[in-house]
Write a structure and sequence with these properties.
Three copies of one chain form a homotrimer. The first copy, chain A, is of the alpha/beta class and 182 residues long. Chain A has helices at 2-21, 37-52, 64-67, 81-89, 107-118, 124-134, 142-148, 166-174; strands at residues 25-32, 56-61, 137-141, 162-164, 176-181. In chain A, strands 4-3-2-1-5 form a five-stranded parallel β-sheet, with helices on both faces.
């Protein structure tokens, strides 16, 4: 009789451990696909907010988003023609981003930046610095780097910048309570 | 022997309670960032569909999305110049929204609205009314309100409209089985 | 004494089963709303990557996304005027998609396609074939089909293409560890 109960409890223990292992962590995972100022602002506000609440935060920059992570003071040599073309057409760094709407040749973008200053909302550059301090993890899609011909030496200085593939993103996202595509 | 088993069972009970407490609810959380007719339609169709399946639904309107929640019959006084400018450039209420693509000076948007009527798909205004009836919860990003200079007295009449910050959104999203950014 | 413990264990067992039943599966659910080449590429890369990691993958094509699933070799008869108009204005099949940015009358789109070929990134057509082989499940929003006047006989050949409603999407998404809206 007792051994039957013991077996039952042992089985419960195993199942419970399995459940615990597969549980999603207090973690936020965002694919930053967009290269628009407004959308990246939203991503950074959510990311720094989550870190302030002590959640782990993993950003995965891909496609247009990667262009924002270039440092405008760095100019790597040895790019082929297509890479130079792409590099030239895309915004270089966060200060060159535009709004997805109402850009109106830059007037809307300037207006928003003016409003943000006036209302004491941190600029994107300040947010990136805060994100680095708070420990927001930034991963960059290696395939996007290859496609657009970006080189590691032209990216911004950021703690532990990692270059990863879609498998790494999926593993992180599966472990995260919250997943967004922005 | 028996006490050992009792302790084991007590421990299991505690771990199980912890698991239950951290479990995500049958709840849907959507960030409505976009101000495009098509995307907001998608958000409202998913939201009302989820309520019909008895899920809790929490919408978090931010950035361009907030403009849609203004009531075109209300005109608050005392706005500064920038706020008036922004207010003027953004669509006021759901009837002024445009498609993200194929707008073609309004023709595409009219065509879609005509098609929706013909095929008995509810208009956005009807969907908002249904959402209110079904108990879809609408939260508005306070920071967006401040940035765009919108005032609470110009927003639509909707039951329990709340003005919240990113922390409140993250808490809701973490509790939700499904989270989307639209 | 023993029976009390037995009852306790029995209760634990029930609660554990309930937890297991409500647990999200190793499954990815994506709403493919966008009709842009870049965004659909991102969706397909994530989807095939997830299948390669043995996750279940359920795509839900809606709105602009559905246009991509039309077969350009098929031309169904008997459409009304509005449906023919919509069908004409929307891209027919994956080869006609454009970039969401930098399209520049097709030059940007051609450049990207050229780069993808050069860097050995699979084209969208190849990715769809891979997705079919790997068992990525494609569901199409029935309401979008109705709205845009698309007919089942003009859609691409894909294994087990299903036409579903928002309820079916929500059930799948609620069961999925990762949910995205692209």
């Amino acid at each position: 009789m007792a051994t039957e109960l013991e077996n039952q409890v042992g089985l419960l223990e195993k199942q419970l451990k399995k459940l615990q292992a597969s549980q999603q962590k207090d973690q936020l995972s965002i694919v930053v696909f967009s290269g628009d100022l407004d959308k990246i602002l939203a991503a950074m506000i959510i990311a720094t907010g989550a870190r302030a609440m002590d959640m782990e935060v993993k950003l995965f920059f891909t496609f247009w988003g990667t262009a924002m992570l270039r440092d405008k003071k760095k100019s790597p040599k040895g790019k082929d023609f297509m890479s130079r073309m792409f590099g030239f057409m895309l915004p270089k760094g966060s200060t060159q981003l535009k709004l997805s709407k109402l850009n109106m040749c830059g007037m809307g973008t300037s207006m928003l930046k003016g409003l943000m200053k006036k209302k004491n909302v941190a600029s994107l550059e300040e947010m990136l610095a805060t994100a680095a301090e708070l420990g927001v993890e930034i991963n960059i899609c290696q395939m996007s780097m290859d496609l657009m011909g970006f080189k590691k030496e032209e990216m911004i200085d950021y703690p532990n910048l990692k270059y990863v593939g879609v498998g790494s993103y999926l593993a992180d996202a599966g472990d995260s309570k919250i997943q967004l595509f922005i």
